């Protein structure tokens, strides 16, 4: 229910688990799966309320999302896992990593893209706006396919899931001392209105395994315009010696 596997790669030595942004779906990472398979077994997390899970109510808590995803990933950890999360997906991935590490497992690395450090908060209220205000936010960030924003029927179908996601991420609060033990690679756009470079660097406070920051030209969805560069970062990671 939670996991999508577009290019099964049973012979791959490692797995990449991809966590979507607010309003996003597992299929956002289809290009990643296409590029990395069959060397890497790529899994996409599908949140409720969208695409084939459209009939299910959205989840309005990052903690609840993380609990469910942690349970869903049981059995997929028979080989080393790497996490990649963009925007809201970055903090969801962080919380899943914390839960898995608490149980004796966890990813070998977390890629946190387009999101400030978990303990860095802003006064955000997009989830409280009316539908027009929510759509305005989507247009401003350029993260939603234009055909959905122009199609009234499609738009009404996806807005409840988007509002649930925004509620989850905007009400998320993290203990400043919360950490993971895996290394964290932070990816950010140099013109991202949602994440300053200082907020991105602060991910270093949330790992005991070391962190690095990679800055790309672009805004909040820099990874769409810099897809080749982001894939190169992931490819380099998976070329490193196999982890156990």
UniProtKB/TrEMBL annotation:
All copies of domain Thioesterase TesA-like, residue ranges: 17-238
The keyword DNA repair is annotated on this UniProt entry: no
Gene Ontology process terms (BP): lipid biosynthetic process
UniProt KW keywords: Hydrolase
Name by which UniProt lists this protein: Thioesterase
Similarity comment: family membership: Belongs to the thioesterase family.
InterPro entries for the chain: AB_hydrolase_fold, TEII, TesA-like, Thioesterase
GO terms assigned for molecular function: hydrolase activity
Top-rank lineage group of the source organism: Bacteria
Species in which this protein is naturally found: Streptomyces sporangiiformans
